[in-house]
Design a protein that fits this description.
16 strands; globular; alpha+beta; five-stranded antiparallel β-sheet; Rossmann fold; four-stranded parallel β-sheet; D-amino Acid Aminotransferase, Chain A, domain 1
Length: 301
């Protein structure tokens, strides 16, 4: 098969591993810079061009699209969908998961465990917003933040009020969530491929940091998840419409609560912690499912 990885970082661990896994299984793998793609949007013969040439004969794409280029990246994925190319994750699913508020609302509608979450526009509603999530300590999140950036723990009422009003004053969209104290700065990353959880790791935040992101100095180790955590991860990925997803959840006193569903989860941490060939499992999923025109959106969303 001819498979293209949409990635701006050909030397990144995840991209390199996917290339290795694909070539080990005899596939023609190429890495395409998403931002160098440009689309010929036409009714009858839509095409994607790259470095001056139209791309032909690509059977499947693996989108590795950074949060900062979600709009352009999903437009490129959508164009491939219009051409009948099979995407590991579809454009609509990626967009859905990247909108933190929309994702939270969709998960809530399907009964997925979540931290109590509030969202408001007016500074005059801050007092009730803080009460809504159970008061401090609480977590304030920028909706466009990623990898722990734009996530603030406010431990007192005054701090919460100041942080929320500051973000609102900058016209930044935020949401406020209850702080799951019993998680103790650790979360569970479950890796889902094709509707099955294939690996899980526990990530522990650096000393003094409540965020568990590995990019921010956190550590990871293999963990055994409960049947409820496994089910929650699979259901969350399904709600988002993602075939490949990293589902991040906290262990709370009332069961697992989902913090985020990541459409481009990194492979280094999960492969290192578990020793599993996650990249190979993604390629296997493509082999089983990639067919011309086999996409639910066909560029419609």
């Amino acid at each position: 098969m001819k498979i293209a990885i949409l990635s701006r970082g050909p030397r990144l661990y995840s991209t390199v591993r996917l290339v290795e896994a694909g070539r080990e299984r005899g596939h023609d793998i190429s890495v395409i810079n998403t931002l160098r793609c440009y689309n010929n949007v036409t009714s009858h013969r839509p095409s994607v061009h790259y470095r001056g040439e139209a791309l032909h004969g690509i059977d499947a794409i693996i989108p590795r699209i950074g949060a900062s280029v979600t709009f352009y990246g999903t437009a490129v994925v959508r164009q491939f969908e219009m051409m009948g190319t099979f995407p590991v994750n579809e454009s609509v699913a990626i967009s859905r998961s990247r909108d933190k508020l929309r994702a939270t609302q969709l998960l809530a509608r399907k009964g997925i465990g979540l931290p109590v979450t509030g969202f408001a526009y007016s500074p005059s509603d801050v007092d009730d917003l803080i009460k809504m999530v159970g008061g401090p300590p609480l977590v304030v999140k920028l909706l466009e933040g990623t990898q722990g950036v734009g996530v603030v723990l406010a431990e007192t009422y005054q701090a919460a009020e100041s942080v929320i009003q500051a973000f609102m004053g900058l016209e930044k969209e935020i949401m406020v969530q209850e702080y799951i104290r019993e998680a103790k700065g650790a979360d569970i990353r479950c890796f889902v491929v094709g509707g099955r959880m294939i690996a899980a790791m526990k990530r522990q935040g650096a000393e003094g940091d409540f965020r568990s992101n590995l990019h921010r100095g956190g550590t990871a180790q293999v963990v055994k998840v409960t049947p409820e955590e496994r089910s929650t991860a699979v259901r969350a990925a399904k709600v988002m419409g993602l075939n490949v997803a990293g589902v991040d959840m906290l262990r709370s006193n009332h069961g697992p609560v989902v913090m985020e569903v990541n459409s481009s989860p990194g492979l280094r941490g999960i492969e290192t912690a578990t020793g599993k060939d996650i990249a190979g499992r993604i390629i296997e999923f493509i082999e089983r499912n990639a067919r011309v025109g086999r996409t639910g959106t066909r560029g419609k969303g």
